[in-house]
Structures are given as C-alpha cells and as structure tokens.
Q: What sequence folds into this?
C-alpha cells in the first residue's frame, strides 16, 4: 500500500521509498526511513497536500509524492506513539557503546589545540535544520548591536556578526537551514561550500530539542566530517514543557560532542554555550572525542577500503576528512565526485567506489545504498536516544493541533487565509500610504527648497529633478516595504506561513509552482519590488525563479494612474469591467508564462514539496521589528545606488541637449529616443508622445502619466484643460485625435505588461543572482506587451 492511500487518522509503517534523486534524499533525511511509524493527520482544504505526523513532528506531502512511499498499515492501538523499531535500536545500541575508536587517519586532523593563545578570534558557524532557532541564537549572541554584515549568496543569505565573550572575539555566521550536507538543495550546497572555503574554528550545531530525532541526522553528518563542534540543544524550554527528560550530558559523552541546552528566545544557556565553545577551541573540553557513527558491517567494510585509498592519495582536497568523503562517494554525491576528480588518481578512486557499490548492491538486492546509510544513521540516533531520553507517558493535545484543526480546515481555511491576506495588503498599501505621503511631502519640500535657493543651471536641475526626484522615488516605498516585511516575518515566525503554503499548494501546483509562491504574487499588486524580495522564502530554486519572473505581471499600484486616466477618458461606461480586465489580463499572462517556463526551462522542480509544518509559536516583537529594519536597509542599500545612477541618466536624457531655452521645439534626447522608437510603436496606434511616456516610464511607471502631461501641453489656452481633454483633442497634423479607445486600450495593455520598472529589474537580478534573468524580463515582457497590445488594437479597430 502507498502512503497516499492512507486515510486521515490512520497510521502505517514505512516500508520503502520509491522515486529518485532529490525527492528520495530529502524525504530520507527528513526521517522517512524503513520501520518508522507515520500517521495521516489531515488534508488541506482542497484535499492536497496532506499533513502527516512522523518522528514527533509534522510534515506535509503532496499526494503524488506520498504515492512514492510504500507503507504497511498498522492497527493504531497496538503500536506506541514513539515507534522505534526493535531491531535497529538493539543493534545500533551496540555500536553506540563500542564507538570509542579514534580515527587514525592522516586526513582526519582537525585539532586546534596548537594555535591556542596566539589568536584571539574564534570563527563560529551556526548549522542546523530550518526553524531550529539559529537566527534567534545569532541575534541574541551577537546582540545585533555589533557590526552585522550581510553576505548574499546566489540564492541564499548568511549573516555575520562580531562580539566579545570570555576574552575572545567571536565571528559568528548564521548559515541557512539544512537537513543534511549533500548537494541537492542550494542551502545544502551553500553550507558545505562555506565549510570547505572558510573552515570555521568551531561549528555550533543548533538542534531543536523538541524534535531531536530528526535534528540529529544532520549531527551524524557533521560527526562524519570530524570538525570541532558543540551542540546547542535549543528550544530546551519546549522539551521541558513536554515532560520529556533528556540526559544530555550522557548523550554528549556518547557522541563525543559537548551538548549545551539553550533557549535562544530568552538567552538562557547562551553564555555557557560560548564558554563551552572556548573550551573546545582551546582543546580543553573533556567530552570531545572522535566517534564513528557506525554503519552496518558490509557498508563499513566498503567504506574502509575507499577511505584507505583516499588517505593514500596525497593530491586530494584536504578540506574534508576521508570518512566523510567516502560516505558521500557511496551516496553518489555529485559534488564530492567533482572534488575527487581533481585528484591525480581520480579514475582509480571512482572505479574502486563503483566496484564497492556493485558489491553492496549485489548483497542488498533491491536496496538503495544511500537509503541503507540513512537507515543506519537513524538507527544510531534511535539507539542513542533510547539510552538517554525518556518520553512522557501521555502526549498532551497541543495548541498546534487545536489551531490547525481550524486554520487548515476545509470550512475555515480559505476564508481565514483570504482575510489575513486582505488585512496585510490593506495595511501595507493603504495604511502604508500615510508615511509614504509624509516622505513624499518631505521630498517635494526639499526639491522646492533647492529650486528656490539655487542659481539656475544644470546643477540645480540635476539636484532637484534627477537626484531628489530619483532617490525620492525609491524612498517613498520604504514604509510599504517595511510594513510588508514586518508581517511576513510575523507569519514566518508564528508558523502561519507554512500553513498558507499548505492551503494554497494545490492551486499553485496547477501552474507548476509551490504554495509559498502565492504570497509574493499577491503582494505584487501593491508593488513588485517587495514582492520579488519576498520570493526569498521559497526554497525550491526553480519555483522561486519562476515566481520572481512572473511577479512583474501583477499590476502594481504605480500602473494605476494610467488606467485611471485612460479608462476615465475612454471607457467610463464600463470602467469597472475594464479595470478588472487589466488585473485579470496580468494574472493570466503570469499563469501562462509560469506554465511555459515550467515546461520548457525548468522541467523538474528539484525540491520536492516536503514541507515541515512547525508548531505554532508566539513571535517576538523584537524579531519581527528587526527583520523589518533589515529588509528596509537592504532595500535602500541595494536599490538606492543603482536607481540613483539610472535617474541621473534619465534626467540627463531629458535635460540635454541644451538648445535655445526659448525654443520649445528642441528635442531632448529622451524625445529623440521616443521618436526613434516610434516606428515600432506605430502599429499599436501609439503617438510619439505616448512612446516617449513609455520610454520615460522604464525607471518608474509613475512617470508615464506625468510625461504625458508634459508632452500634451497643447496650445497655450489648452494648458489648463484637464489632461483627458488634451488627449482627445484633434491633432492638427493628422486632423484626428492621437488617442482613440483602441489606442488607449493598447496603451494600457502595453503599460501593464512591458519591461518592469528599474527597481524591480534590480530586485530580480539580486534575488535570482544572475543578470540574465533581468535581461530576460526586459525582453520577454516587452515582447509579450507588444504582441498583446497589437492584437487588442487590431481587434478594437474591427468594431
Ligand atoms: P532558524 O530558521 O533556525 O533561523 O530559526 P529562527 O531563529 O527563525 O526561530 C524559529 C522559531 O523558533 C521562531 O518563532 C523563534 O521565536 C522560535 N524559537 C527560537 N529559539 C527558541 C527557543 O529556544 N525556545 C522557543 N520556545 N522558541 C524558540
Ligand atoms: Mg534563520
């Protein structure tokens, strides 16, 4: 029977994982291993995905993915909640107690004892599963008042902070959350590359005490790496509250890694953690000892042959120890293979690995070697926990269960979600409009001040229109961005974000995306820039890129003035319908684009929808405010510079060449550009003024209407007429008005779809980590805009 056939409330034991590659790897590291008990808890309102309970935590899986897991149904009453398979627990217990052997390998030297006293800086890296409290620990340890930098990787971020403790300066880095150290997800690759390139002095492995079994899987991989390490047993308050008792000192002794309980939300235990780190760094901690997470006999045998060969090879990369390299080779880790290929004896090594794999596969028919390794590791963990941890007799009904019964229920799930979204949207863009207005007033005042007090000339114009206007256009959105990220942080911390993704996943899956893509897309209706920035929460790289690329089709508020002007002028009889039509058109183009991208460019979604549903937690105000501040700063820093340059360029194009000031017929470069592009826009029924407005709107779409206003000044007596009247006035050259309903509709469609504003393009490049995606957006969106505007214009002409 397949897991997908399991009915709500029923339990089963996992028999086998079908499927391949990333999916298989991910579910294994998340605890889907042979012999584990799994319970179907509830289905999302649209019946897909389904929430399961496994190893004392909750996880959601799509039905298609659940159908790749073979299970055997069990009678609920006959199995205890905490089902640890007898055989594994027994056999690995033996390993757990005979693992005192110390690796003698030449490659396995990571002792830091000798440097002590010479250097007074300790580099510490925080590594742990997503949501185990790394960032909270980082913030409380670094106080976030010392220098905090922001390094942005390709798709993932890490933060560094510096602070002093116990006579040492600590450089601490908060790495992205990972379930293991393989090469399947960008986070995993990032963390492993970080370890390889930066080789921190001590790793702090943050583990969630309320979910120990799964969290310790990563620990076993870190033990394989044989790196100086301390375990921060975080969320210790939750463990205490649950009634479970853990002899963490015994656990630490058993695995040779000091364990320090912490509550990083309050700071409890953090001082002791850093004292322990110092001890480990100085080589004075009695617990530290190299231990092997023993695998089954035939695996160990193959492993030791590979390990010996690796140790003999002096040309191999020395950053990882031989045991770790050997295990990863047996798991067919592509990146480690690459690393081994750099060696002179690469062919020999890989041939040996293949021979060993063949041998192992022959002796374990139908089994996948990396599953065997994961099984053994979970067996080791079970054994260690069986000796040191006592689960409470009764499992209390948690608040999370009660809340989830409501929040993800078929009846209330969607209405509640829509209310939350509506509230956030309203608060971000309508309440946020007040501070935005104040900022705008300040900017206007500053511009006016410059205009009044400076001698006329290019410098004054540059300051007033170029610099203040351009940078002002960026700062104005700051309140919206900060408010939005306050809510996003709040939702992430509370655990609601995961539920939102859970509810929306089925709908988003229809266009090849992930449940988490929904929130950025909705935010796009307000402003595309924060929407693109919000895509960071999407773990799956391809889903993230697709979401980033379709976000600009969400009609942002800057495009609204164009609709207001043209719909009011030409379609007042059907205003509501045309308005709605514009928003819908954007959404439809986004959906079609997403499906195409999924179909032709990102054929497989490399990250399966296996999503942890963390328990609800009350977010701390401090965290949310800090996140808001962080994002605001990032926005100003990253956008500010480029937008400033762009605004100055556009200003220069508009200002130069300086003709005779009395001659109104001089063409600025901007107008020349507009007129040069004009033949391309002619088929859309666009006047040259319209074309100039479109070009001027590239930095920011707010500029479109004001440009039209400047260009359609008309005759002297017409200047104080409303812009709508001026647009419909007869053009003396053609004897017809420039804008007709057909031309107006085409113009609106073009504005809706064409190249997004510069700030959005910059955000796209930053978020995807590649300028190519920015270029794609510019060309693809403009092409789509042209084609649809052309079609609309021609169809309208028929009537
Ligand atoms: P990260 O994903 O590992 O960086 O985890 P975060 O630091 O973002 O924390 C995830 C959630 O756990 C947040 O809601 C925190 O407030 C909460 N949290 C962190 N540490 C603790 C702790 O020690 N005890 C409790 N009860 N909650 C914690
Ligand atoms: Mg974090």
A:
């Amino acid at each position: 029977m397949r897991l997908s056939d399991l009915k709500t409330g029923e339990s089963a034991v996992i028999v086998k994982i079908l499927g391949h590659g990333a999916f298989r790897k991910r579910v294994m590291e998340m605890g889907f291993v042979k012999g584990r008990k799994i319970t179907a808890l509830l289905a999302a309102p649209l019946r897909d995905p389904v929430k399961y309970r496994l190893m004392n935590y909750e996880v959601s899986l799509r039905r298609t993915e659940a159908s790749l897991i073979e299970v055997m149904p069990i009678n609920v009453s006959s199995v205890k909640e905490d089902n640890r398979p007898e055989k594994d627990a027994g056999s690995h217990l033996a390993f757990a107690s005979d693992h005192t052997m110390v690796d003698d390998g030449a490659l396995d030297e990571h002792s830091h004892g000798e440097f002590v006293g010479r250097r007074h800086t300790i580099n510490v890296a925080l590594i742990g599963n997503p949501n185990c409290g790394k960032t909270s620990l980082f913030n409380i340890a670094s106080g976030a008042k010392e220098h905090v930098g922001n390094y942005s990787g390709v798709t993932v971020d890490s933060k560094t902070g510096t602070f002093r403790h116990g006579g040492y300066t600590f450089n601490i880095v908060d790495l992205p959350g990972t379930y293991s150290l393989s090469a399947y997800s960008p986070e995993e690759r990032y963390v492993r590359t970080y370890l390889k390139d930066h080789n921190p002095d001590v790793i702090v492995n943050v583990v969630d005490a309320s979910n120990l079994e799964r969290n310790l899987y990563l620990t076993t991989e870190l033990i394989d790496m044989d790196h100086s390490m301390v375990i921060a047993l975080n969320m210790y308050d939750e463990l205490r509250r649950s009634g479970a008792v853990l002899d963490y000192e015994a656990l630490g002794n058993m695995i040779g890694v000091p364990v320090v309980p912490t509550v990083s939300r309050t700071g409890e235990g953090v001082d002791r953690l850093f004292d322990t780190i110092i001890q480990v760094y100085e080589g004075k901690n009695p617990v530290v000892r190299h231990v092997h997470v023993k695998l089954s006999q035939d695996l160990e045998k193959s492993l030791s042959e590979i390990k010996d060969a690796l140790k003999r090879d002096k040309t191999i990369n020395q950053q990882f120890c031989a045991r770790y390299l050997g295990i990863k080779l047996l798991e067919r880790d592509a990146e480690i293979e690459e690393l081994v290929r750099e060696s002179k004896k690469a062919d020999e090594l890989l041939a040996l690995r293949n021979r060993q794999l063949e041998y192992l596969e022959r002796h374990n028919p139908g089994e996948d070697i990396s599953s065997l390794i994961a099984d053994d590791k979970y067996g080791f963990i079970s054994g260690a926990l069986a000796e040191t941890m006592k689960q409470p007799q009764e499992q209390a009904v948690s608040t999370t269960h009660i809340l989830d019964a409501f929040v993800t229920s078929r009846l209330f799930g969607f209405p509640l979600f829509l209310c939350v979204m509506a509230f956030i949207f309203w608060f971000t863009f309508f309440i946020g409009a007040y501070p935005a207005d104040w900022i705008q007033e300040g900017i206007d005042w500053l511009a006016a001040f410059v205009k009044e007090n400076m001698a006329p000339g290019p410098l004054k114009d540059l300051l007033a229109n170029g610099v203040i206007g351009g940078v002002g256009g960026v700062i104005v959105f700051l309140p919206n961005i900060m408010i939005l990220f306050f809510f996003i942080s709040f939702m992430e911390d509370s655990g609601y974000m995961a539920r939102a993704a859970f509810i929306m996943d089925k709908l988003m899956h229809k266009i090849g995306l992930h449940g988490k893509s929904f929130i950025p897309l909705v935010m796009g209706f307000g402003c595309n820039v924060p929407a693109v920035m919000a895509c960071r929460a999407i773990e799956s790289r391809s889903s993230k890129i697709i979401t980033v690329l379709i976000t600009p089709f969400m009609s942002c508020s800057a495009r609204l003035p164009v609709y207001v002007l043209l719909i009011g002028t030409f379609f007042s009889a059907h205003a509501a319908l045309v308005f709605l039509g514009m928003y819908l058109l954007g959404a439809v183009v986004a959906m079609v684009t997403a499906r195409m991208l999924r179909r032709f460019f990102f054929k497989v979604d490399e990250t399966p929808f296996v999503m942890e549903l963390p328990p609800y937690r009350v977010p701390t105000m401090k965290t949310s405010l800090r996140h808001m501040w962080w994002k605001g700063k990032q926005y100003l820093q990253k956008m500010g510079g480029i937008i400033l340059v762009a605004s100055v360029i556009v200003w220069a194009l508009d200002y130069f060449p300086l003709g005779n000031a009395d001659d109104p017929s001089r063409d600025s470069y901007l107008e020349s550009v507009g007129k040069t592009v004009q033949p391309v826009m002619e088929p859309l029924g666009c006047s040259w003024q319209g074309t100039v407005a479109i070009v001027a709107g590239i930095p920011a779409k707010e500029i479109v209407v004001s440009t039209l206003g400047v260009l359609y000044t008309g005759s002297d007596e017409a200047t104080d007429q409303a812009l709508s009247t001026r647009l419909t006035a007869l053009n003396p050259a053609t004897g017809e008005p420039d804008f007709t309903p057909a031309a107006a509709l085409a113009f609106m469609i073009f504005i809706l779809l064409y190249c997004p504003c510069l700030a959005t393009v910059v955000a796209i490049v930053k978020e995807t980590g590649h300028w190519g995606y920015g270029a794609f957006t510019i060309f693809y969106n403009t092409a789509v805009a042209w084609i649809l505007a052309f079609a609309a214009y021609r169809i309208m002409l028929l009537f």
